[in-house]
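Notes for week 9. Today we move from apo structures to complexes. The key idea is that a small molecule is not decoration. When we ask for a structure prediction with pyridoxal-5'-phosphate present, the ligand SMILES becomes part of the input, just like the chain. The input block below holds both the sequence and the ligand string. Read it once before you look at the output, and try to guess where the molecule might sit.
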Amino acid sequence: MSTGLDDTRSTAIYRRAVSLLPGGVNSPVRAMRAIGRDPLFIARGEGAEIVDVDGNSFVDFVCSWGPLILGHAHPQVVEAICEQAKLGSTFGAPTEAEVDLAEEVTRRFPSIEMMRMTSSGTEASMSAIRLARAATGREKLLKFAGAYHGHVDGLLAEAGSGLATAGIPSSPGVTDAAAAATVIVPWNDPEAVAAACALHEFAAILVEPIPANMGLVPPQSSFLESLREFADVNGALLVFDEVISGFRVSAGGAQELYGVQPDLTILGKILGGGLPAAAFGGSRALMEQLAPVGSVYQAGTLSGNPLAVAAGRATLALLDDEAYLRLAATTENLAAALREAAGSCPVQIVTEPGLMTVFFAEQPVRDYEAAKAADGEAHAAWCRALLARGVYPPPSQFEAWLRGHRLSRPRVREPLLIPTVIAIRWKLFAKGIAFITRRGFWSVALTRTLPFWLAIGSTLPGWKGWPRSAIWKPFLS
Ligand SMILES: Cc1ncc(COP(=O)(O)O)c(C=O)c1O
């Protein structure tokens, strides 16, 4: 299916891909099924933009689902990778750069005294859980509905991200024993956590401190503090999965932003600067239970890969305090523009620094149930309209917009307002039409849909009305 884009080559490649890769992709949410179209195949990226194989360019708000906080092909990151590639891509032996990276991570995250690197966030989650179970001598885990911690067997029930997007409640192939060891409670519900803690002795309370895999649903006031207390009373480890929030919402992640220290932290994405790297870490006492010091086994052929470490170090080197202030400000500007475009329409625009979700919902979204109740069709129509106008959004209501720094060229556009106005006003427009047909009150319908017509009109080549800039100015800061 196609919508307003020349995607001839993407379509041809997709036909080949579906016979070789399940769904034509190597990770489900790339398939774009939730927004009713086939995937676009990307040829290259530079700065904030990507270009597909048909030559369409987009401002990219996926940024490879988070790692590319500096945008695509950042010159300093590319240089670091190339320099390392000349020296060798992997040795299966330690390198000094891994130690440098670990120092930088421990400097940013006071709760981490030692860390162990892996190649993916999934591996890091799996390993952190193993360590938590070994350290506590317990099996059960508490996890939140709508949270995603990678495709770890025991954590797939009521998981967000691709499972939520595809409407998969829990994956076949997971053993009953693995599923039974996980207790799932609603996010932002301290009473449910208290009830679960009264019934079970947990090895870990596993939490995305800023959940971004059911859309962005930040913690309510004091919820993270209450999780710290519940974990302490229960004897469980508090494990923060900061694969998305780490290095994004602040230099020291959600734990710094919200002032709550976990026992273990899971990191990924930005840590590898666009190459495969992740890690988990915590106190020395916990981490030295890992082999070869302790007996909790964990390993990886490409863990701490030199190319990924080089990309990660180059990325973190550019993420200073000023960069975080800028990222927070540009995220808020974007959200403010969208809020203004939305006017009184029923959308919820939620932000944390560098993260945003637009829920097509009348009420604020506080948990997974509310996220699932949002209007997926309106969201899908909006995403298709964005793509047709040069904006690449996460193609799912259950993901966050992952903003990168606008580092490259000033020509980077923020044309979000147009499709936003169109999609959001569309509902009013449709209501207006219904009004017309039912009552015949044209004038009311026209008044209500005026912003829609202005938005459309001002995009036409022969537009002679108010200067376009006057209409769009509020959105272009
Ligand atoms: C919060 C969170 N944890 C873990 C993971 C798994 O990471 P990976 O895809 O690198 O396995 C993800 C992936 O998006 C994630 O968002």
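The radius of gyration is 23 Å.
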